[in-house]
Amino acid sequence: MTTTTFDVRPNPPLAVGSWEAALDAGRPARIPSLWPWLLVCALVALVIDLGHLHQEEQGDSILQVMLSLQRWTVFAWGQDRYGELLPLLARPFRNPFVNMLVQGWLGVFAGLAPFFLLSRYMLRDKIWAAPAALASASLLVCTPAWVRLDWFAAQPYGTSLTLAVGALLILESTGGRQRRTGRLLVALLLMLLASWVNFSVWVLLIPLVLLRSLGGSERAGHLLERTPGAGDQASGLLWRWKDRTVIYSIGLLVLGAVWGRLILRFVKDMGGRTVTRLMPVRQWPGAWAKLAASIWNMALLRPYFLRFAAVSAVGAILLLAVPALRKSWRQTLAVCVALGGAALVQFLLAGASVWAKMNVYFPRYAYPSLVLVSIALGTLAAAPLRALPNGFWRYSAPAGALLLVTLAIYSYGIPSPATARKDIDEKFGGATPEILAAHANLIVGTYWKVWPAVFHASLVLYEQGSHQRIYGLTDRGVGAQKRWSRIPLDKMRAAMFVGDEDRAGFWLTAYGLPLTVVEHRKGIEILAYRPAARAAQ
Predict the structure, then answer these.
(1) β-strands 493-497, 442-444: how paired?
(2) Helices (H), 219-301
(3) What dihedral angle (degrees, nearest 10) is formed by the CA atoms of 254, 258, 263, 269?
(4) At CA 192, angle to CA 190 and CA 198, rounded to 5?
(5) Are the C-beta atoms of 47 and 105 separated by less than 8 Å?
(6) pLDDT tens digits, one per residue of 92-116
(7) Which residue would you say has higher pLDDT here, 22 or 270?
(8) DSSP 8-state assignment for residue 31
(9) Strand, helix or coil at 452?
(10) Whether 209 contacts 347, CB under 8 Å
(11) N or C: fewer beta carbons within 10 Å in the chain?
(12) In this structure, how many other beta carbons lie within 10 angstroms of the beta carbon of residue 210?
């Protein structure tokens, strides 16, 4: 009789996550889509916009609302730069508070989206969203609130980058010949809008496109499967230079730069010209040092990049120490070099410009560079995440949404329209009752005081259903001049803040308005035209 023996020894236990690794074996990782992350940006922007974002509102950001409500112009009042796209989109909203919220939401979205668009453009594997999520999370937590407001609402860099990088990504999407033609037209439209909003966007993106092409970062996913040899590198480089997408991208950016200059010929001078020339070469090192010192001294680098750099250093160490990750270190390095190189070009050109010198090297001129550097740091920090199984990345967008919404609430509080309105009333509404009680139709004085006061007074008048209008007489007020100049001289009543007599007097003289103080109120003085007093002078 034959006896059959069965091996009943238990199989060795699977390590944690090994069953997922077994399922993933031989199957390429699916690259997460971009559109869910753009929805995340829109959601986070709403949370921020209805939170305490508007506690930091100031003259530059509030002016965008008045430009939308009182007289929209192609460029900002008193300037020939900063195309006013967001105020144009918000024009249907005549309620000043709603207009501010709409522009705030659009601005915050356009401030967050470049992190994800640029990361998707540079990284073509499953982890592409992680560097962007880390960089935007660090922005929400580590940077000062006034810097975030400046980036989101007062400067055009985020909007122009969103449009321009979106155009570059559209160029690279797949489809038939008809779809390619449609993509090219859409990309062209986005690039023209980007160059209108901010002419200098090409300064950052042309070096980025070139360095990305040379580094081969667009082939990130392939490097996870195998490490190419020297022959592959050489043939790949030749292939990339023949790739029409690269040529189209550079051509589109050059066309946008040309359009950005030509559009000035079709627009009336609004009272200011931007100086675009560079300083003499011998002054460049000193200028770069001043811009770098300005960034450091304004507490922009220290809380943000030093903490972020520490996390990135840990990621870089793991990337080199873990054998399973080591095969992708060349690609990670190529991405970081491309981002860092483009950031360096933008920083050097911005620092060497006469315009930066005229504006005492304010840190905002380096904002685009800092965005690229933060994505580079995020790429290093997120590199170890490549070890996670492919299935994990299916839930990356919901996890990112939970993280970023939580951080947005941490930084800006529970979102509510009442929260935003309370902040505006507390910050800008102190003088509004006196201004309206005096029936003022003009506020004159310092830029940083006038525009917030004009906004809040206009908001209260709108809510009262009044047809009265109130205007500002200060820096960048040339756009509203056509409106207030229609008011008869004997009907003008100008409000001036106590202690602001010098600036108010300067603007009254500049516009030839013979107004004198006729009434003293709490915190303000009312000026009007007195023929007898004028004759006595």
Answers:
(1) parallel
(2) 220-223, 230-242, 244-262, 284-297
(3) 120
(4) 100
(5) no
(6) 999 999 999 999 999 999 999 999 9
(7) 270
(8) P
(9) helix
(10) no
(11) N
(12) 17
When the pLDDT of each residue in the chain is averaged and rounded to a whole number, the result is 83
Smallest CA-to-CA distance from 397 within 92, 147, 116, 110 is with 116
Read off the pLDDT of residues 262-277 as tens digits, 9 standing for 90 and up.
887 777 655 566 777 8
Residues 441-471 as b or e (16 or more Cβ within 10 Å = b): bbbbbbbebbbbbbbbbbbbbbeeeeeebbb
Q: pTM for this structure?
A: 0.86
Cα 140 to Cα 156: distance, rounded to the nearest angstrom: 19
119-158 pLDDT, tens digit per residue, is 999 988 888 999 999 999 989 988 888 889 999 998 999 9
Measured in residues, the chain has a length of 537
Amino acid at 24: D
Non-local (6+) Cβ contacts of 205 within 8 A are 164, 165, 168, 253, 342
Q: In this structure, what token pair is assigned to residue 476? A: 């960048």
CA contacts within 13 A on the Cβ side of 373: 17
Residue 201, pLDDT > 60, answer yes
Q: State how far the Cα of 98 lies from the Cα of 150, in Å rounded to an integer.
A: 20
The tokens for 193 are: 């809008």
Query: What are the domain boundaries of the chain?
Result: 30-222+231-412, 429-536
Q: From CA 486, how far away is CA 465, in angstroms rounded?
A: 22
Q: Determine the Cα–Cα distance for residues 484 and 470; give it in Å rounded to an integer.
A: 8
Look at residue 253 in the predicted model and tell me its pLDDT. 94
User: With contact defined as beta carbons under 8 Å apart, do 50 and 416 qualify?
Assistant: yes
